[in-house]
Amino acid sequence: MPYVDTHCHLDHHFDLSAGQQIARAREAGVATMITVGTDMASSAQAVATATRYDQVWAAVGIHPNDAMEATPRVLEVIEQLARDPACVAVGETGLDYYRDHTTPAEQHASFRAHIEIAKRTDRSLVIHCRDAWQDVLDTLDDVGAPDRVVLHCFSGDLDVVERSAQAGYYASFAGNVTFSNAAALREAAAAVPVELLLTETDSPYLTPHPHRGQANDPSFVPLTLRTLAQVQGRAEEDLADLVIANTARAFRLEAGIVAGAA
Predict the structure, then answer these.
(1) What span, in angstroms and rounded, lies between the C-alpha atoms of 178 and 231?
(2) What is the mean pLDDT of residues 29-35?
(3) pTM of the full predicted structure?
(4) How confident is the model at residue 261 (pLDDT cuts 50, 70, 90)?
(5) All domains of the chain, ordered by start, with CATH?
(6) Residue 36: is its pLDDT beyond 80?
(7) In the chain, % of residues over pLDDT 90
(8) What HEC string does the chain produce?
């Protein structure tokens, strides 16, 4: 059955090239990958990688931990990259209060700028959030969210699930949902409406159990889907099909293309 990795960093891996990771993913049944930039250089590389390989798409943006780099000129380049046919999303952007590499003011300014870029380019918005859920959701309410919003590496509680689901935001789960200490995250995953559920690796980070300690890559996304199927009480094959349909809507792609059938 085909799997989808809606958020990976193919050009950040410590050991494997993008081509090697894609080959491993294909062997594991991963049909579609979205490789994500975190600054201007890696965003340009994401578009180049997506252009080179079939069934690989790009997301471009400035990570909140690098928000000090989101100058008008850099944001202009991000918008140009977002308009490339290989790009399906703007981000990852958002707010991260766990780390203090940038000030909240810098992060908020960058986040709002990315929201506007997503609207102007009609691209999906991919959000990174850590310890800032209320401010992220309040900002989307205040500015007005784009048509398609993906909460990457979802880490919210049940209240965040309820509020984001009411807004129609997609919740994408990474390998940390498989961790033994992630019972609360699995509870949240069980509560997400299945039509808003996505799978990702966030590779090379957050390697799922039982491979923790290794560098992550898209070939491990089936382990995340297996855990999500368990907590949702669904067969893996059924959930894989639903995730394909969800990915198609979330990133404005054809379901057949996402499944690798067209």
Answers:
(1) 11
(2) 97
(3) 0.97
(4) low
(5) 3-258 (3.20.20.140)
(6) yes
(7) 94
(8) CCEEEEEECCCCCCCCCHHHHHHHHHHCCEEEEEEECCCHHHHHHHHHHHHHCCCEEEEECCCHHHHHHCCHHHHHHHHHHHCCCCEEEEEEEEEECCCCCCCHHHHHHHHHHHHHHHHHHCCEEEEEEECCHHHHHHHHHHHCCCCCEEECCCCCCHHHHHHHHHHCCEEEECHHHHCCCCHHHHHHHHHCCHHHEEECCCCCCCCCCCCECECCCHHHHHHHHHHHHHHHCCCHHHHHHHHHHHHHHHCCCCHHHHCCCC
Taking the mean position of all CA atoms in its chain, how far away is CA 94?
12
- Copy the structure tokens of residue 172: 């994408």
What is the residue type of 111? F
Q: What is the mean pLDDT of residues 79-108?
A: 96
Tokens of 83: 């308009």
Which pairs count as long-range contacts for 214-218, CB under 8 Å and 24+ apart, including other chains? 215/13, 215/14, 215/15, 215/16, 216/175, 217/8, 217/13, 217/16, 217/21, 217/24, 217/25, 218/5, 218/8, 218/10, 218/21, 218/22, 218/24, 218/25, 218/28, 218/30, 218/33
> Which structure tokens are listed for 150?
């993906």
User: Which residue in 222, 168, 174 sits closest to 192, CA to CA?
Assistant: 168
* Whole-number Å distance between alpha carbons of 9 and 15: 13
Which pLDDT score, from 0 to 100, does residue 66 have? 96
Q: What is the mean pLDDT of residues 149-159?
A: 98
